[in-house]
Amino acid sequence: MDRDRVWEGPIHGSLGVLADDGQLAQCHICGAYFGNLGGHVSQVHGIAPADYKAFFELNATTGLLGPALKEIRQQQADARKSSPAYARFMAAGARARAAVPEEQRSTRGRRLRLQQRLDPKVQAARRASLERANEVLRERKAAGLHTPAGWGTRDPREVSARGHQRLAELRRDPEWRAGFSRKVSEARGGRLKVTCVVCGTSFTEPQSHKGRKSCSPECFRQLRRGLIEARRDAAAPNRAERQQQGVELGLRRRQIGLSIEQVARAAGLSAAHVSRIERGLNVPSGEAMEKIAAAIVGPPAGATTVAPSLVGGQGVT
Questions:
Q1: Looking at residue 297, what is its pLDDT?
Q2: What's 189-214 look like in SS3?
Q3: How many other β-carbons are positioned within 10 Å of the β-carbon of residue 274?
Q4: What would the mean pLDDT of 300-314 be, rounded to a whole number?
Q5: What is the rounded distance in angstroms from the CA atom of residue 62 to the CA atom of residue 53?
Q6: Does 317 score more than 70 pLDDT?
Q7: What do you get for the CA distance between the two ends of the chain, in Å?
């Protein structure tokens, strides 16, 4: 689930808290109480239990069960702890955790869910960690090892001059310039080697034309002609049929007594395009046919009806 998604509907209870009445757990979505809340949210609300916990800031390890059912499940789990299957299960879990790299196991930089942040043990651990950091800072200050952030007591002009001098030295280093150029290129998306889909030539993708598939204007024109021909071939089976439908719409328009400009305005098309469709010179797309047909409504049994948008908001029969 995308961690940026949030629950946009009403919420019953409080975020980060799985409320209960002593027997059943309360649903944050509908407010009702259930013993097996996980089954309820998946079957009734169509939300996976993991997504439900993320939506309402519950820990991933929090069971979506009422207190009564949770106690029964705990008793069943305790009875299985002495079985060989449980020992094998715990050993497999230990091997899986050991296979995870250390950087992935670390919680540094991860966002804690609200239920975990409200846990008194977590809050106490955070206060202890902050106190240890402050103690180390006091010791460094007392030993004269701490350097304040910012300019401190130094002259800003002197610091700026030293910085410019160092930058000038780096710019004279070819290795540094190559590395700096590579970092800038990566930050802007990089310059990729692309193979032309027309001639197969490998070329560097321009920064201003990302997604380019052809290496030269000639290949681009050839690719464009190929795409046009492909679209024409795809429309070939019903090309004649759509041309005839356009001619028939023109006959219907003239029978009603409407002008091309009126139909074009109601359909959101140009009058020239509608005229060429009626004369069979243009093959109309399905969308254009729907718009023109919506402007000229055909009769169910011999009567002729004009769309309300054409004649003063009133249909004419």
A1: 66
A2: CCCCEEECCCCCCEEECCCCCCCCCC
A3: 27
A4: 40
A5: 8
A6: no
A7: 56
DSSP per-residue codes, 292-312: HHHHSPPPSSS---B-TTTTT
44-79 in b/e form (b: 16+ CB < 10 A) is: eeebebebbbbbbbbeeebbbbbeebeeeeeeeeee
Q: In the numeric block, which tokens belong to residue 46?
A: 């169509």
The label of the residue with tokens 């089976």 reads 237
Find tokens 């407010």 and name the residue: 31
Distance CA 275, CA 261 (A): 9
Q: Which domains does the chain have, with CATH numbers?
A: 1-90+113-135 (no CATH), 238-295 (1.10.260.40)
Give bridge partners of residue 287 from the DSSP assignment. Answer: none
Backbone angles phi, psi at 235, to 5 degrees: -90, 0
- Is the pTM above the cut of 0.85? no
Q: What is the pLDDT of residues 202-240, one digit of tens each?
A: 877 665 565 677 888 888 888 888 888 777 766 656 777
| CA–CA distance, 311 with 296 (Å, rounded to integer) | 11
Higher-confidence residue of 304 and 111: namely 111
User: pLDDT band at residue 67, thresholds of 50, 70 and 90?
Assistant: very high
Q: How many CA atoms lie within 13 A of 193 on its CB side?
A: 3
For the chain, the 3-state helix, strand and coil shares in percent, each to the nearest 5, are 55, 5, 40
Locate all alpha helices (DSSP H) within 3-62, ordered by sequence.
37-43, 49-55
Spatial contact of 253 and 263, defined as CB atoms under 8 Å apart: yes
262 burial level (CB within 10 Å; 0-12, 13-18, 19+): buried
pLDDT higher than threshold 70 for residue 181: yes
The answer to whether 19 and 58 have CB atoms below 8 angstroms apart is no
